[in-house]
User: Which sequence fits this backbone?
């Protein structure tokens, strides 16, 4: 089964993608200027289809991280 799991906190997000039984991971952390990738790189993975990469490359996780950060006490 192919799947995408995204876990977002106010400190960053982790994405795990399984394509044809092979798992790929990428992790981003919040910085003073946005976020930075500290683990993995989906762009360099030839086995991730372009349609999946394009969906993963959206700003959705970043926007969720910012929203969570904005409601913290």
Assistant:
């Amino acid at each position: 089964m192919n799947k995408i799991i995204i876990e977002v906190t106010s400190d960053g997000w982790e994405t795990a993608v399984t394509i044809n039984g092979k798992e790929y991971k990428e992790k981003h952390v919040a910085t003073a200027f946005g976020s930075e990738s500290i683990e993995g790189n989906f762009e360099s993975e030839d086995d991730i289809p372009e349609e999946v990469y394009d969906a993963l490359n959206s700003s959705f996780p970043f926007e969720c991280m910012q929203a969570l950060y904005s409601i913290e006490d």
Remarks:
- The first helix runs from residue 50 to 56.
